[in-house]
Amino acid sequence: MISFMQLRIPNAKLAFLSRTSRVPLYRIVLSFPQKVFFCAAKYSESEVDGSFSLRLVPPTLVAAEKEEAKAVLTLFLKKQGLSNALAARAINRSESFIDHLVSRLHSVHKSRYLVGRELTTLEIRDALIPYLEALHEEYGSILVDVVESFPNPPVVEKIEETVEKVPIPVTPASPPSAVLDSKKLKALARVTDNGPTGKLPPHILYLVELGMDIERIRVITRKFPAFAYYSLEGKIKPVVEFLLDLGVPRSQIPTILSKRPQLCGISLSDNLIPTMTFLEELGVDKEQWAKVIYRFPALLTYSRPKLRATVDFLYEMGLSAECVSKVLTRCPNIISYSVEDKLRPATEYFRSMGVDVGVLLYRCPQTFGLSIEANIKPATEFFKDKGFSMTEIATMVSRYGALYTFSLAKLVLKWEFFLTMGYPRTELVKFPQYFGYSLEERIKPRFGIMTDKGVRLLLNQMLSLSEDGFNKALKRKLQKLIDN
């Protein structure tokens, strides 16, 4: 007799077995403490727990960001091997989890929303993908079940008694901890097992003193088991002290190690320091190392040929040594973009539009990390459909490189409101930064105030001025009307 209580069986096979087997069948579901599910959410890339209320964010923005969250989750599931159809089905069954992703997004970037700034597509992707990766490390092949069952752990249900047993190959389904291979299990045991003294290992105690609690260290270890074996005096402590000497705040060390635990396995004298020297020669501002490492700690783990290839590409695009220095310092993650698969194709596309690629690379290098098919082309077609010429679109992109980093859903919402404002379309060509301001927190309120006063400011005056500058501009405009 086969017990299906512990088997992971696709729904189609369950349906077949229910018609042809005499054994009692059960719907294969998960049962695990809900607090386990949230451990990765709490410690992946943020200090927060995802509790920020969606009610604090305008419904139109929430709707747009739900679409972006769905897109990120779809791409992630497809990378795990799901077909387009299976990924789409999972998304359709995961409404609660999508809401959870958006809520988490707002928690991670709460300060941005409070000042009326919206997140770009890249910022949304960078906030959610590490979290999804942590969940995948936690749950492995049962991630889809976890996502679809959120937030309530389902229970095991008996389906029916059937007629005749038919042996079908199945894959055992294990609880989350059993998904981890033996290497990870041993590493996790090393993190939490008390030694002969009854205390945690010295390197774990040291990390806890730095501000990393045990669960966060476990998350790192699941992603990178070697981290559990780094010695305190030989590996971890020297790197931490080196970072502190560079000016990295102590409070940022846990985040840096979470993002790139491999740093602790790299020799200071043989690798880290020579790599930093090499990067300084390529243009990284050595006075900004603390900020650069916090933004992108993986920078120090790339090979020198890779670093050189990216810098050579920037020079090839016409950037001066000073501009290359600023790009590497402000956007060090450009090193992670493949020259042949990302940078060069994006360059060719923007050149075909008439955009000055050198200027765009300098002003907004992160645009070159976007997908041409999924992000860049749809935005171009959107503006063309609204009557903008290719020359006008190129001008807008050149003036505001971040234009393409916003989702199509956000562009649509802001375009629709722009049509109610009475400005000519040329105002957007002059001031495409309009699309970067929050519709609910900046655009609508200021337009309402301006309209109530019965005056008219240029689009850039209405949005780009500080609160005090905006009020002064309104007073000057009113006084001019009175004087006339």
Automatic annotation (TrEMBL):
Coiled-coil residue spans: none
Pfam family, one: mTERF
InterPro entries noted in UniProt: MTERF, MTERF_sf
Gene3D superfamilies: Transcription termination factor 3, mitochondrial
GO biological process per UniProt: DNA-templated transcription termination
Keyword Transmembrane helix tagged: no
Superkingdom assignment: Eukaryota
Keyword list, A-Z: Transcription, Transcription regulation, Transcription termination, Transit peptide
GO terms assigned for molecular function: nucleic acid binding
Family the UniProt entry places it in: Belongs to the mTERF family.
PANTHER family the record matches: CGI-12 PROTEIN-RELATED (PTHR13068), TRANSCRIPTION TERMINATION FACTOR MTERF5, CHLOROPLASTIC (PTHR13068:SF9)
Protein name stated in the entry: Transcription termination factor MTERF5, chloroplastic
Encoding gene (name): LOC102599415
